[in-house]
Amino acid sequence: MRPVVVSVGPLASPSANNIALSQTPAAAGALTLNGSLVSGGVATLDTARRVLFTTASNESAKTITVTGTNWQGNTVSETLTGPNATTGYTVLDYATVTSITVSAAFTGAVTVGTNAVASSGWVRLDSWAPNFTSVICTITGSPNYTVQGSADDPNSAFTPVAPASMVWVSCPDTTLVAATTSINGGYTYSPIWVRVLLNSGTAAGVTATFTQFSNGPR
Asked: Is the pLDDT at 10 greater than 80, yes or no?
């Protein structure tokens, strides 16, 4: 496999309400997208990143459905449980948010914005390559990041898993978990997908190069 390079960050400063200002839904339906990132009813984020929800009351009996596009411009959507007087954020990364709906009236107010978490684009590895997968990460600024892999595949012909339901696992090379420096590490096997998760660091970024050194028999 030729080297594949992906990047995540730097991110603009987080804001708890740059997608939707404080509002209390009176019934099931759509939130009003009226934050500073919104134009024409669509929130456009600085880069694909997680969407943050902050609730004033216990909304855990309700669900929130987010719809938008990812870093490739593909439509993505997920449904999550409402936070219990705290914050919660999406599993997927959104470059745009086109709709947020709630399943029922809320007890208290909710705001929608961004935090300091984002993932890189996903890299599909060659499942037939038997040898070591090199991961070289180069940082800018002061990020905290983790290289992750997944054995789930939305494109599987037999057991497809929706992107929002995929399980991502930290790399077994612990130098690539909660890392804060540039690292040369890797996998001793080939997950189906790999990516870089930026855990924190808004004025920081990570560029990762994934390389598999041989191909299996055809």
From this structure: yes
